[in-house]
Design goal:
By secondary structure, the chain is α/β, with parallel strands linked by helices. The chain folds into 2 domains: 7-72 and 115-375, TIM Barrel (Alpha-Beta Barrel), CATH 3.20.20.210; 73-114, no CATH class. It is built from 14 helices and 13 strands. Helix 10 links the parallel strand 10 (264-268) and strand 11 (286-289). It is globular, with a radius of gyration of 20 Å. The two termini are 19 Å apart. The relative contact order is 0.14.
Length: 380
């Protein structure tokens, strides 16, 4: 993994590494624990990460939930069942509905939907970081306010898997913006008051960089910038250049100033074939997802030709048509095709294009390790 993430160094890995991002619902269904524990409890999520890394023979783990408050159970007043869902009632009156195959949903006391601020009420000076995966939904973290337990899952996995590449996740400023406000309000603000939006994004970039440095100190081998809302389905190239590029560059630079050799790469899903060059301008070390048609607009061989000498590439295997709905043989063949397109010269990580869906058959995922073992080696 370390060599694959550094194509400029010119050193080949022994074989193509394998690492998929699994949806949280997939952990809930297949890791052997209860969904409510995996979501709310640091050791439970850490054990789920380790269990599926071993089952699928992944060379890396993405820690895509922050550590959790160790005393969270003390705030519970009751746990009930409603069909397949678990219902958690909290001492403050909030209620969490936890499906067996999807992220939990939180309602405030009295059943009201958790409110989001309006753009008009947004104050750039009060912003620092929005944690989309807070235990009570999207949570605004104040400057200098990351609790020590924020990094506990990274430490938990790092200690138990010293030979595995452990990756942290921070959300891009633009993703935080879309997670914090109502989508229509957040997108209209790009047109109505771009100056104020830019001021907010600059503050959120400071927070993301600070979080990345904290993850680096906790022992990650790489940091993924999750930028899911930056594809052509949401914004144009011009808007990407204005509202995404400079702020993701600030995150990369903010991490690299303290950890210059740590790979920082970007996950953007959907139609991004028209903006790969702009993604490179952020200073990223790698491109993740690379959704193929019809999910996206990236041809892996073309991306390899254009960027493979400078950036590492990860993904491009269709998580829906192939991994979720395809046969085991089709998954094996698709993995061979991706390696044939991008293996040469190193710098490719075999992976699903986006997150592996909750109900993806485990035997389909296992075909990727089989393919890497058959055709992923760079020397005999």
């Amino acid at each position: 993994m370390n060599r694959a993430m550094r194509p400029r160094a010119g050193q080949l890995p022994d074989r193509v590494p394998l690492m998929c991002q699994l949806s949280l619902g997939h952990y809930f269904l297949h890791a052997g624990g209860r969904a409510i524990d995996i979501w709310h409890d640091t050791p439970a999520f850490g054990d789920a990460l380790l269990a599926l890394q071993q089952r699928y023979a992944f060379d890396g783990i993405l820690v895509n939930l922050p550590g959790r408050e160790p005393g969270w159970r003390a705030h519970l007043s009751a746990v009930e069942r409603r069909g397949d869902d678990a219902i958690l009632r909290w001492a403050n009156g909030a209620v969490t509905t936890a499906p067996p195959d999807d992220n939990p949903h939180v309602c405030a006391a009295g059943g009201a939907r958790m409110g989001r601020p309006t753009f008009a009420a947004a104050d750039p000076e009060r912003l620092f970081y929005v944690e989309p995966h807070g235990q009570s939904g999207a949570t605004l973290v104040e400057a200098g306010g990351f609790p020590a337990w924020q990094f506990d899952t990274i430490r938990y996995v790092r200690e138990r898997a010293p030979g595995v590449s452990v990756h942290g996740e921070v959300f891009s400023p633009f993703s935080q913006w879309l997670e914090w406000l109502e989508h229509a309000d957040a997108l209209m603000a790009l047109v109505e008051d771009p100056g104020k939006v830019a001021a907010c994004l600059a503050r959120l970039a400071d927070g993301a960089a600070d979080l990345g440095r904290g993850q680096a100190a906790a022992g990650v081998d790489a940091i993924l910038i999750s930028s899911a809302f930056a594809g052509a389905g949401f914004i144009s190239r011009r808007q990407y250049r204005t509202f995404v590029l400079p702020f993701e560059r600030a995150v990369v630079e903010g991490v690299k100033q303290a950890y210059p050799d740590l790979p920082v790469y970007t996950h953007t899903c959907g139609a991004i074939g028209d903006r790969l060059d702009l993604m490179e301008e952020t200073g990223t070390d790698g491109l993740d997802a690379l959704d193929p048609p019809p999910l996206g607009t990236v041809a892996l061989a073309d991306a390899k030709r254009r960027f493979g000498q400078r950036l590492f590439l990860k993904g491009n295997l269709d998580p829906v048509a192939t991994l979720l709905n395809g046969t085991a043989d089709a998954c094996f063949a698709a993995a061979l095709e991706r390696m044939a397109a991008a293996k040469a010269g190193g710098g490719y990580i075999l992976s699903s294009a986006c997150s592996v869906a909750p109900h993806t058959p485990p035997e389909n995922i296992m075909q990727l390790a089989r393919a890497a073992d058959v055709a992923g080696w760079y020397s005999d």
